[in-house]
Design a protein that fits this description.
- The structure is a single chain.
- This protein has two domains: 196 residues, P-loop containing nucleotide triphosphate hydrolases (Rossmann fold, 3-Layer(aba) Sandwich), CATH 3.40.50.300; 200 residues, Nucleotidyltransferase, domain 5, CATH 3.30.420.280.
- It is an alpha/beta fold.
- The chain is elongated and about 70 Å long.
- It holds the Pfam family Terminase_6N.
- InterPro entries: P-loop_NTPase, Viral_DNA_packaging_terminase.
């Protein structure tokens, strides 16, 4: 098998207690691990401690590492995860665990770990990582891990910069000579002008600061209209979704209709509306919702689903009830809870759509336009990527829009398998 110079460098240098590859998306970090590093480490175990593999969740670890490892080495050498959260890998029993929540601390507490592998380290809960440090108790214990860079104050970065026995290799997307040039060019375009370019292309730790969607905000400020759907082009979305965010504590209700282009090649914010939550009642909200549904249906001829803020079940059910006595009775069965994936995954999806020329808005979606162009990173908690949500920006409309695209975010990011 062919290896890049970076991959060869890692194999020659990963003899430290902690061996971590930090770098760009697609730089070949994980491929080297499931093809070479993990099998080599497991076969060298002396039986003096446990073997553990940790990822953001057990599911992501399985998709990122175990599944592709199985494709290379076969099912005889790479078994499936059993009910006790272990799998037989190269004849060794390995604990396969998530690390995104502090509840996982108990799963490794008390262990003596001879070998540990870590996937997506910057997505872990810090308490899990701190417990892992105390569990590598063999004199020959090793750890191999990968991470995409995050905020410079992140606990993983602080550990790398400490006086611990750490070998850290950094890489850019251009360090992987096996990636198709078109894919690399597209990825660079999609993340241009955002913090994700610095992290996922250049492989550098960078703080999320200021305007979130800088290229979009600059476009609106200069009135170049490149994100506005061209009036001369007929728009025929093959899916129409409505997102609903409920207001409270000073925020507002928000309705957003989004059209999905055939083949998921892009999305168009079709129309949007904000409604003051203070001083209004459920009956008023129901009336405005039905009016919004009517306007969307008249214009686009179909509504495939409504996704509502899952934190407000009473309000969600009231919207469903409001549809029953109308000609949209059929839509009442299509009112669902929003999936509510991680906000930063929603932000990354939106940024990639914008950067790749796959996001547009219609003139009727003015509140979506304004919300996106003024969205800000908080910066209040060093080490964490947080969107500002203090009432000074329109987070309600952002949520409503994101509810309409989040279920398909892997399609839009090109990571769905």
């Amino acid at each position: 098998m062919a290896l890049s110079s970076k991959q060869i460098e890692y194999l020659q240098s990963c003899s430290h207690r902690w061996n971590i590859k930090v770098g760009a998306t697609g730089s070949g970090k994980s491929w080297l691990d499931y093809a070479v590093v993990v099998p080599k480490r497991l076969l060298a175990l002396r039986g003096q401690g446990a073997a553990v593999m940790l990822g953001n969740t057990q599911g992501t670890l399985s998709r990122n590492i175990l599944d592709p490892m199985r494709e290379i080495w076969g099912e005889c050498l790479v078994g499936t995860i059993s009910s006790d959260n272990t799998a037989l890998l190269f004849g060794r029993r390995v604990h396969i665990l998530g690390a995104d929540n502090k509840k996982h601390v108990a799963r490794i507490q008390g262990m003596t770990i001879e070998y540990a592998y870590g996937d997506e380290m910057t997505t872990w809960n810090e308490e899990v990582f701190q417990m892992l440090k105390s569990r590598l108790r063999c004199g020959h214990s090793y750890f191999d891990g990968t991470a995409n860079p995050a905020d410079p104050h992140h606990f993983v970065k602080q550990f790398i910069d400490s006086d611990a026995d750490v070998y850290c290799q950094t890489s850019t997307i251009d360090d992987n000579p096996f990636l198709p040039s078109e894919f690399v060019a597209n990825l660079k375009t999609e993340y241009a002008g955002t913090v994700y370019y610095t992290r996922f292309i250049l492989g550098q730790w960078a703080a999320a600061e200021g305007i979130i969607y800088r290229p979009f905000a600059d476009s609106i400020a200069s009135n170049d209209n490149r994100f506005l759907w061209p009036a001369e082009h007929e728009l025929r979305p093959f899916r129409v979704y409505i997102g609903v965010d409920f207001g409270g504590n000073g925020s507002q209700h928000a309705f957003v209709a989004t059209g999905v282009l055939p083949g998921y090649r892009g999305v168009v914010a079709l129309c949007s509306e904000r409604i003051a939550a203070k001083g209004t009642d459920v009956v008023f909200l129901q009336k405005r919702f039905v009016q919004f549904v009517e306007a969307v249906f008249i214009r686009w001829g179909e509504i495939h689903a409504v996704f509502c803020d899952s934190a407000e079940q009473v309000l969600k059910n009231s919207l469903r009830a409001a549809l029953l006595p109308t000609r949209f009775r059929w839509l009442a069965e299509r009112v669902y809870n929003a999936k509510k994936i991680e906000i930063n995954d929603r932000i990354r999806t939106t940024a990639a759509l914008m950067g790749g020329g796959r996001f547009w808005y219609m003139p009727e979606a003015g509140s979506v336009r304004d919300a996106l162009s003024t969205a800000l990173w908080s910066g209040k908690h060093p080490g964490k990527d947080e969107r500002l949500d203090d009432g000074s920006t329109d987070v309600d409309t952002l949520d409503g829009f994101e509810y309409t695209i989040e279920r398909d975010y892997k399609r839009y990011l090109g990571t769905e398998t």
